[in-house]
Design a protein that fits this description.
By secondary structure, this protein is an alpha/beta fold. Helix content is 50%, strand content 18%.
């Protein structure tokens, strides 16, 4: 079961399980955008426009709570896990392109994918540091190789802006992954199971990176707006 609702100005889809989400995007040529409290409260109209024209899904516990308040059956779908669900679901039939992180990380990511998904067709990959010439070369590569699924790991909103530009040149299924390649390659560790089970991944990140404190204030503001019916 799926549905969607506007959370402030951000249209967000609710999925009752990952299988429903996988089935829904089967033949889509859209951008998958992880929605959390920070994105919902963000005043970036360009980012909101990209989400609303595509498929925003609840990657944060705040977004899940807000969707449930709207009467929708929603679960949290971590993008850092779901991209591998996509790969596992269709790697025998679809082709892939990956962009993001450092050259060392992307090399390690591709190597591990080839080990875990024997026969996967990765038509190209590169690091996430693009200048104008690199961007034009990337567009030509996508037009020539025509990958079915493109994963972009640069962080928000940079990755969303890039995907919005690329999909106009080569329609496909795109997904923004933030730091997922770093986690998959083992460069960075994800939160321990305890934090994940109790929806406290944000707290783990804050403990590991105290400089994120300003960003986490968005969650406090979000919860206040949610509980006072202002979302």
């Amino acid at each position: 079961m799926k549905g969607s609702s506007k959370l402030r100005n951000v249209n967000t889809y609710a999925f009752s399980n990952r299988a429903v989400f996988l089935n829904y995007i089967e033949d889509k040529k859209k951008i998958l955008v992880a929605v959390n409290a920070e994105k919902i409260l963000n005043k970036d109209e360009k980012l909101h426009r990209i989400i609303n024209e595509n498929i925003g899904y609840p990657d944060g516990v705040g977004a899940v709570m807000a969707l449930k308040e709207k009467g929708l059956d929603a679960i949290k779908i971590p993008g850092s896990e779901f991209w591998l669900d996509i790969v596992g679901h269709c790697y025998k039939e679809r082709t892939f392109y990956l962009l993001g992180a450092t050259q060392e990380v992307i090399d390690s990511t591709v190597s591990r994918l080839k080990e875990e998904f024997s026969g996967i067709q990765i038509v190209g990959y590169r690091d996430g540091f693009l200048d104008d010439a690199g961007k034009e070369a990337l567009k030509e590569t996508l037009k020539n190789e025509k990958p079915d699924i493109i994963f972009i790991a640069q962080g928000t909103p940079r990755q969303e802006y890039l995907m919005d530009e690329l999909i106009k040149v080569h329609p496909a299924l795109y997904m923004g992954l933030g730091g997922s390649f770093d986690i998959y390659s083992g460069t960075k560790k994800r939160a321990p199971k305890f934090f994940l089970d109790w929806h406290l991944e944000w707290l783990y990140r804050l403990l590991k990176e105290p400089t994120r404190f300003g960003r986490q204030l968005a969650l406090v503001k979000f919860m206040f707006l949610l509980k006072t019916g202002r979302l």
